Amino acid sequence: MSGPPLSDPELAELLGRESRRRESTLQLLASETPASPAVRAALTSDLGAKYAEGYPGARYHGGCDVVDDVERLAVDRAAELFGAEYVNVQSLSGSAANLAVYAAFAQPGDPVLALRLQHGGHQTHGSRANFSGRWFAPIHYGIRAADERIDYDELRDLALLHRPRIIVAGGAAYSRLIDFAALREIADDAEAILWVDAAHLAGLAAAGVIGSPVPYADVVTLSTHKVLQGPRGGMIVASEAHRAVLQKAVHPFVQGGPAMNSIAAKAVCMRESGTERFAEYAAATVACAQRLGDELATRGLRIVSGGTDLHFAVADVSGLDVTGAEAQRRLDSAGIVVDRTVLPFDPQPVTEGSAIRFGTPCAVLAGLGRDDMVTVAEWIVRALEAEVGSTQHAELRREIRLRLGG
Ligand SMILES: *Cc1c(COP(=O)(O)O)cnc(C)c1O
């Protein structure tokens, strides 16, 4: 996985180290996939140099006739893939797409109702550390302690009580299907905009592995680099009625010139995401996450909500007497890369947490299948039971490297 030759030896050395790290360790991250070769080719194309502020047919710069067609192609392909009336492909990241949604539908100080961060939400859904929590008035719904699923009764009560401008669904660590139809009804009753942040869900929805939020939501945002194998970037999908406000929100309110090389790469990604190969890969990520969750559960880790419907799950590691942060360090030392996270009702401080979030897209792309998840679960438990830097970890690293052919 090496790129074009670099005349900068210092950086070349670092890139080499990163390639070796990737090839010799197991990536169990929920939000990462290596971009496909065609996406990488688009990213390094001449389009990266082109300034194209504005939209196709209405730019502030000359010489945009080719990039106009590139952007139209990306938009048309995304509209077809998601069955959407309106698409904006310019957002530089998922978070930038989210900022544009706030800009389009809310004024500073307006109430916005979203899933609590600790229950699986996202920083951009009203966290105090983020613009969304500082400039708007977030109200949070949560999951039920009993089954760790969204409490739609609480959600409805909060929506009717606070009359938020926007109701947000989707998150970074909620692994269950979301009842988009129920949310549509609540949003209608509360006269709120329904926004689904599909950063994690978009790839699975495109593949038909889970139901799409697009027919239900006023607006859907997504990242093109999580299950989707596209460039690092964001996208907005909405109904035609919201075209004008969203166009202005992305540019000029949030951004200047778009990254045209990235838009070209998004066009490639939209094409690749409609293929049979992509559908098989997406289905495999879910099958592997479910199997790995089951295998870990039989070995003393509790899976939040008892399982997953998506490509990732959250596992409680407190049963093995480690915190989430220590679990991440031990797994890292053994050559397994995961994210630490918190449980919905975690007794540990946020910086430690009691859980890890594992995801399967990279593992599937590395050639692992559902049955391999038994071995992966064994690796994880062995890694968690040994100290950072131990000989057990060195042995595991070797085993994993050999299995991955790195
Ligand atoms: C990843 C993610 C985002 C956006 O991430 P970027 O890094 O800005 O692309 C937004 N919302 C959710 C729920 C996410 O998981």
Automatic annotation (TrEMBL):
Catalyzes the reversible interconversion of serine and glycine with tetrahydrofolate (THF) serving as the one-carbon carrier. This reaction serves as the major source of one-carbon groups required for the biosynthesis of purines, thymidylate, methionine, and other important biomolecules. Also exhibits THF-independent aldolase activity toward beta-hydroxyamino acids, producing glycine and aldehydes, via a retro-aldol mechanism. It comes from the Bacteria. Pathway: Amino-acid biosynthesis; glycine biosynthesis; glycine from L-serine: step 1/1; One-carbon metabolism; tetrahydrofolate interconversion. Keywords: Amino-acid biosynthesis, Cytoplasm, One-carbon metabolism, Pyridoxal phosphate, Transferase. Its cofactor is pyridoxal 5'-phosphate. The record marks 225 as: Plays an important role in substrate specificity. It is found in: Cytoplasm. It catalyses: (6R)-5,10-methylene-5,6,7,8-tetrahydrofolate + glycine + H2O = (6S)-5,6,7,8-tetrahydrofolate + L-serine. Residues 7-380 form the Serine hydroxymethyltransferase-like domain. The modification N6-(pyridoxal phosphate)lysine is found at residue 226. Its EC number is 2.1.2.1. This is Serine hydroxymethyltransferase. Belongs to the SHMT family. It comes from Gordonia prachuapensis. (6S)-5,6,7,8-tetrahydrofolate binds at residue 117. GO terms for molecular function: glycine hydroxymethyltransferase activity. SUPFAM superfamilies: PLP-dependent transferases. InterPro entries: PyrdxlP-dep_Trfase (IPR015424), PyrdxlP-dep_Trfase_major (IPR015421), PyrdxlP-dep_Trfase_small (IPR015422), Ser_HO-MeTrfase (IPR001085), Ser_HO-MeTrfase-like (IPR049943), SHMT-like_dom (IPR039429). Its main location: cytoplasm. Pfam families: SHMT. Homodimer.
